[in-house]
Amino acid sequence: MVQRIQNGNDDVFINQARPVTVKETCTRYSASTIQDVSGNSRLLDLVALNNAGAVVGALTEGGVARYGSEFANG
User: Fold this and answer.
1) CB of 32 closer than 8 Å to CB of 65
2) For residue 42, what are the domain limits?
3) What tens digit of pLDDT does each residue of 29-57 get?
4) What are phi and psi of 70, to 5 degrees?
5) How far apart are CA 61 and CA 69, in angstroms?
6) Is-contact 13 2, C-beta < 8 A?
7) SS3 call for 66
8) Is residue 46 part of a domain?
């Protein structure tokens, strides 16, 4: 809102600012994956096996090693 004040010699304009609240959201997420190098690459799981061939650990699940936000505190 702008107010105009006339004092006889010059006009004075006063701009009164109103507080504005802006709500921002971030929906940008990413994931670290392991993929093959074919033209239409597939997600790969990286697993550790024992001597008997049984899975004892895994780095990925469904080819994804890590999910997360692209921001440090997000």
Assistant:
1) yes
2) 29-74
3) 778 888 998 888 899 999 999 999 999 99
4) -85, 5
5) 18
6) yes
7) strand
8) yes
